[in-house]
Amino acid sequence: MANYYLYILSSRHHRHLSIGVTPDLVTGIGNQRIMVSRRLRKKRVLQKLVYIETIDCVEEAVEREVELKRAPRNQINKLVESVNPGWDSISLRELVAAGFSRS
Questions:
Q1: What is the reported pLDDT for 98?
Q2: Do 22 and 4 form a contact (C-beta atoms < 8 A)?
Q3: What span, in angstroms and rounded, lies between the C-alpha atoms of 40 and 24?
Q4: Angle 21-31-83 (CA atoms, 0-180°, nearest 5)?
Q5: CATH code of the domain containing 29
Q6: Has residue 73 been placed in a domain?
Q7: Is residue 103 situated within a structural domain?
Q8: Is residue 97 part of a domain?
Q9: 98, part of any domain
Q10: Which domain holds residue 68?
Q11: Is the entire prediction scored with pTM above 0.85?
Q12: At 54, which helix (H) or strand (E)?
């Protein structure tokens, strides 16, 4: 059974968030950072990966993504802070070392 990853990207000061799902966390996050930076065209680049959740089924992953996108901001903040109280950035290098890459 394949794993899917729900992730939350944050801007530097946590004002802006992006929630997404990907089967390949390393590639997916890299592409999302590029896509978001082009779309915003301002200094609001979402460069910090602050939350990851592993989900077994793509349907459940998409449901969870929709649930979080509809959730109030304070609920999302509590979710991130429950596992990452300092909103520290999780680097792609750490992801590869932890085995999150498909390759």
A1: 73
A2: yes
A3: 24
A4: 50
A5: 3.40.1440.10
A6: yes
A7: no
A8: no
A9: no
A10: 4-91
A11: no
A12: strand 48-55
